[in-house]
Structure formats: structure tokens, C-alpha cells
Amino acid sequence: MSQIDGARLFREAWITGVHQHFPGEPKPGYVTPWDDTPQWERDAAGSVYEQVRQFIEISSGHAARLSREQKGRFVATCWTAQMFKHFEDPKPGYVADWPDLPKWQQETDADIFEAIEKAAS
Fold it and tell me: Domain of life, per the record (predicted)?
């Protein structure tokens, strides 16, 4: 899968997760379709997709043994690095550590890892 297709997969998994886990009506920016997603966010999604894909690959499939929390934490950490890359002074919520993320976002991040894992197999 190309990095662009991987970025789309990431975004689609994010939107699906938000719809499934977000309490109430999500902010429009959380569910912006791919074609309306800003370029920096597309680039970040592609980078995180690639990091997760490579992590799965170099584990020789053993990343499947990680807990959902470990999978979600990995996605969240990769995303945080992208926020520091794309923003000089990112909002605190963009770079919050795992325990400080809302439950819906933790679940969505784990869903993203599992979507990439499924696509990689």
C-alpha cells in the first residue's frame, strides 16, 4: 500500500473511531473528509501509517501480541511527534501524554493501529 493510501486508511480509521467512541456530536474537524483534510494532517497521517506499518513488519507479526492499550499508545506517540514536527508550539491537547488523552481518543488510536495491522496482513 502506498503512503498516500496508508494516510487515507489512517484518516478513515480515525473518522470511524470518532463516530464509534466520541461521546455526543464530534467537532466537524474530527470528521473532515479526506479531500478537505489540510495537507499537514495528510502528511502526518501518512507518516504515522508508515511508522505503524514498519513496526508491524519488523516485529515479524508479533506486534499482534500487544495489548490494545500498547497499540493505541504507539499511535499516540507517533502522532505527538508529528505535531511537534508540524507546529512550533502545538496546543497542549495535540501533544498530551497517553494518560491525559480522553478515553474516546485512546480507543480510536487503538482502532487505527488495528486497521493498519489488518491491512498489512
Answer: Bacteria
The closest alpha carbon to 78, from 107, 50, 119, belongs to 50
HSE-CB at 10 with a 13 A cutoff on CA atoms is 27
Domain that holds residue 93: 3-120
Other residues' Cβ atoms within 10 Å of the Cβ of residue 90: 15
Please give the tally of structural domains in the chain: 1
Global pTM value: 0.95
Three-state DSSP class for 26?
A: coil
Can you tell me which residue has the cell 501480541?
A: 65
Q: What is the pLDDT of residues 64-102, one digit of tens each?
A: 999 999 999 999 999 999 999 999 999 998 999 999 999
Given a contact cutoff of 8 angstroms between Cβ atoms, the answer to whether 40 and 83 are in contact is no
What amino acid occupies position 121?
S
Integer CA distances (angstroms), 98 to 4, 43, 71, 74, 103, in order: 27, 22, 11, 9, 10
